[in-house]
Design a protein that fits this description.
Elements lengths: L3 E6 L3 H11 L4 E7 L5 H8 L4 E3 L4 H6 L6 E2 H7 L2 E4 L6 H11 L2 E4 L11 E2 L1 H4 L8 E4 L2 H17 L1 E11 L14 E3 L6 H7 L7 E8 L5 E9 L5 H10 L3 E4 L8 H10 L10 E4 L4 E3 L2 E8 L5 H12 L5 H12 L4
Bound molecules: nicotinamide-adenine-dinucleotide (NAD).
The site of nicotinamide-adenine-dinucleotide (NAD) has 24 residues, from helix 1.
């Protein structure tokens, strides 16, 4: 069977990772990426042999920088079967029209509204909802993290309600445009949008979220309190998490006490760009009291949505069932389970 031709529009934090992940699968290939400016990322993409498509007005700048241009953004859209749109939030609507006109499938990211596509995606929670669709949206990093564990808990024990406090990274490591650089900044518009976003995939979950921006770039931490539909033991929940796809148990007893040590583990694992695709839960920080479960999970914001984008392509192109796709993506990316 011919490989699915994937074009990646926007080659920043998420786009470059999606391109690498797609290029590691045997049933799809990257036919091109887009760049607006001839930055170092354009140069590394060119060195990696990725065809670079640019807006027509940017061609002279790329030529001046000595970077070969394969064509315009419209040319890439024409050549692709699926476009993974990784442009900054709110740019998506402008491109959706182009994809629609060209009759192409497209995946948008969490910076766009759910209403843009009407369907949002998470591999564990609702793989089937994007089956054969022209458009879908992979939810944000925080929402992906929450859905990985909440969808399983709901299936096993029926969630009565969930309260989550998110400590958010202020900026990505390569970003120097945002802050705070020395403070903690509460999100005062409450409840925050993260709970609403969880409902874009699992509308029946009763969830409320709050968030605080912290001066770190590495990861988010989510402090989760869930009232379950029945009383279970802490060990039972730990067993559920241990078997869950793209969830990794870590322990302070092993020396992983903070997000910087989680990222050190990712470096030890030798992953591309030291990415931690899994949601990391502190096993010694999981506790059930009566029918209430408490746990902390760390989310590598640059990485957790990457395997979901690969699975979303398979669902939209009706290539295989969810569990099969998750296993295939995991194997190609070196994720244990
Ligand atoms: P980014 O700023 O790192 O990358 C965006 C890329 O798009 C850049 O290369 C930029 O030059 C390019 N671009 C800008 N305008 C464009 C245009 N009009 N046409 C084509 N390319 C254009 O952003 P990012 O962090 O990769 O975020 C992309 C999307 O992924 C957003 O929706 C964001 O909300 C979502 N997301 C980000 C993270 C994260 O932590 N960074 C996590 C999950 C989801």
């Amino acid at each position: 069977m011919a490989k699915i031709k994937v074009g990646v529009n926007g080659y920043g934090t998420i786009g470059k990772r999606v391109a690498t992940a797609v290029s590691k699968q045997d049933d799809m290939e990257v036919i091109g990426i887009t760049k607006t400016r001839p930055t170092f990322e354009a140069k590394t993409a060119a060195a990696a042999g990725l065809p670079i498509y640019v807006p027509a007005e940017s061609i002279p700048a790329f030529e001046k920088a000595g970077i070969a241009v394969a064509g315009t953004v419209d040319d890439m859209i024409a050549a692709a079967d699926v476009i993974v749109d990784c442009t900054p939030g709110n740019v998506g609507p402008e491109y959706k029209e182009k994809y629609q006109k060209a009759g192409k499938k497209a995946i948008f990211q969490g910076g766009e509204e759910h209403g843009l596509t009407g369907v949002s995606f998470n591999s564990t929670a609702n793989y089937k909802d994007s089956w054969g669709m022209q458009f879908s949206r992979v939810v944000s990093c925080n929402t992906t993290g929450l859905l990985r564990t909440l969808s399983l808990l709901d299936k096993a024990y029926k969630i009565q309600n969930a309260y989550v406090t998110i400590v958010r990274r202020a900026a990505d490591p390569g970003d120097s445009k945002t802050g705070p650089v020395n403070g903690l900044e509460p999100s005062v518009s409450l409840p925050t949008h993260h709970g609403v976003d969880v409902k874009s995939v699992l509308p029946w979950i009763d969830i409320t979220t709050m968030a605080i921006k912290a001066s770190t770039t590495l990861m988010h931490i989510q402090a989760v309190v869930v009232k379950l539909g029945k009383e279970v033991s802490t060990d039972e929940v730990l067993d559920l998490f241990a078997k869950a796809p793209r969830v990794r148990l870590v322990s302070s007893k092993d020396g992983i006490k903070s997000t910087n040590q989680v990222m050190e583990l990712a470096r030890e694992l030798g992953r591309d760009r030291s990415d931690m695709y899994e949601i990391c839960i502190w096993s010694d920080g999981v506790k059930v009291v009566g029918d209430t479960l408490y746990y902390y999970q760390a989310v590598h914001q640059e990485a957790d949505v990457i395997p979901e984008n690969v699975d979303c392509i398979r669902s939209m192109c009706k290539l295989m069932e969810g569990p099969e796709s998750v296993a295939k993506t995991n194997k190609a990316l070196g994720i244990d389970h």
